[in-house]
Amino acid sequence: MKQALIFFVLSLLMGVFVVFKIATLQADTTKTENSTTETENSTTQNGKTPFAEGCDKCHGDETAYKEWTQAGHSHALVNLLEGKYEVRTSCLSCHSSGYEIFAEHGIPGHPYNEKTAVNAVACSSCHSHASKEEHLLVMPAKKLCVTCHKMDCGCAGAGVIHQSQTEMFLGREGAGVKRMPSPHVRVMKKRCVHCHMAKVEKKDEKEVETRHGGHTFKADLSDCSSAGCHDSADNDMTKKLPLYRAEIDAMMKEVKTILDNAADKTSEAYIDAKLNYDMVKGDSGYGLHNIPYARALLQHSLSLKPQIIRTVDQ
Ligand code: HEC
Ligand code: HEC
Ligand code: HEC
Ligand code: HEC
Ligand code: HEC
């Protein structure tokens, strides 16, 4: 009897504590929501929410942090929430750092979802002090970017077509074309990181604002000749790329005309031709990450013209 009473009192105390804790957390979260609208970049820097990652406390003055604030990754959450698509909690797996962490080691009763989320694609999406990888990366650099930058977000039926850099770079998933990895896959051990985080020596103080690479994740064509790869006159990428682009653009227009004129948009031929078109378009607009593959994909789409047109005649 005495034991039961102690147990009851203890349970009551715990209940009160939990309710109190929830109330404070909720108050904090509302505060964060308000400040999110005021300064969209400071979401990850707001220490008041239990979900803030807090890396800025020690790393806030470093170049990596400052560069990150200038790049798309720091807007990934805002762009998701304000985007034109219906948001599901699972979208956060790529659009917000906290999802993976708090879904696993979450605060009981406080799910990390689209209403409580505060982090964009922030430091802890890619780094962890618990990691043994170089630069404390959560996985080797070559695997990191492709976990998120893929066509299929795994959000079946959500109607979002994500971009296709991974599939194009690795030359796969297209219809009717054999695997064709970009020649860069072999020579660039860190894959996406090789071009998108390459740092150039800054020539003077003013250049710091426009400098690409590092945590801005901006690639620049001036890198192509830097390692002695595309440095001869007939291999100059700043001249060759516009030509490639014109060629691919022309093919895309041709495919688009065929797609627009198809009567049966459920036929296999139409679906295949459209997939290839969307893949090329989803990769910087013209298949930049693998031009030979882009060409092959569009050629296959064009070869389906008789079948797509035949469905019109029926
Ligand atoms: C956790 C998922 C995730 C990972 C890992 C990731 N990205 Fe992103 N990335 C995104 C999202 C989401 C966006 C869209 C941001 C937005 O809304 O503009 C994006 C945008 C970008 C952009 C466009 C940036 C801009 O300023 O418009 C580049 C370039 C990019 N990522 C490169 C990379 C590279 C290189 C890596 C690997 C080092 C990488 N990403 C790893 C999710 C990720
Ligand atoms: C597998 C990772 C992943 C998942 C899951 C994911 N996204 Fe994305 N999302 C990205 C990446 C990466 C980008 C940046 C575009 C790119 O380069 O691929 C992006 C960009 C976007 C953009 C800005 C560009 C655009 O297409 O307008 C919106 C909006 C968006 N995603 C919405 C969503 C929604 C809604 C969901 C859930 C239904 C979702 N995303 C789930 C990875 C993902
Ligand atoms: C999208 C993934 C991604 C995000 C987000 C990211 N990093 Fe990194 N970071 C990397 C990769 C990849 C490297 C290794 C680059 C290399 O191997 O050249 C790196 C390297 C570093 C380094 C060591 C070398 C350098 O470039 O300065 C520091 C420090 C660092 N990151 C800090 C941060 C901080 C702080 C944040 C949050 C503002 C952050 N990173 C966000 C991917 C990321
Ligand atoms: C209490 C201070 C503190 C906090 C908070 C902190 N770090 Fe660090 N971090 C350090 C110190 C100290 C080092 C080792 C010295 C150095 O290399 O800068 C370090 C090293 C790193 C490195 C390796 C840099 C390299 O040159 O390879 C990365 C990446 C990193 N931290 C990421 C993070 C991320 C992501 C977070 C938030 C989840 C975080 N840190 C939070 C203090 C901190
Ligand atoms: C050979 C160098 C190279 C490699 C490797 C590479 N990229 Fe790119 N990427 C570029 C260039 C150049 C651009 C065009 C940049 C621009 O238009 O400002 C670009 C554009 C992009 C964009 C669109 C950026 C924007 O601002 O809209 C994204 C996203 C992207 N790459 C992601 C990736 C991912 C993910 C990988 C790995 C699967 C990768 N890239 C591998 C060179 C590269």
Which key terms come to mind for this protein?
15 helices, globular, 314 residues, binds heme C, mainly alpha, single chain
Describe what you observe in this structure.
This protein has about 325 residues and is mostly helical. It folds into two domains: about 140 residues, no CATH class; about 150 residues, no CATH class. It is about 50% helix and about 0% strand. The chain has 15 helices and no strands. α12 packs antiparallel against α13, α12 packs parallel to α14 and α13 packs antiparallel against α14. About 10% of the residues have low confidence.
Bound molecules: heme C
Low-confidence runs of at least 5 consecutive residues: 12-45, 207-211
The proportion of strand residues reads under 5%
Helix content: 40-55%
What is the helix tally? 15
What profile does the largest beta sheet have? none
Characterize the overall form.
globular
Q: Return the structural class.
A: mainly alpha
Average pLDDT number: 81
How many domain units?
Answer: 2
β-strand number:
0
Question: What distance separates the N and C termini?
Answer: 84 Å
Question: SSE string, helix = H, strand = E?
Answer: HHHHHHHHHHHHHHH
From the alpha-carbon coordinates, what is the Rg to the nearest angstrom? 25 Å
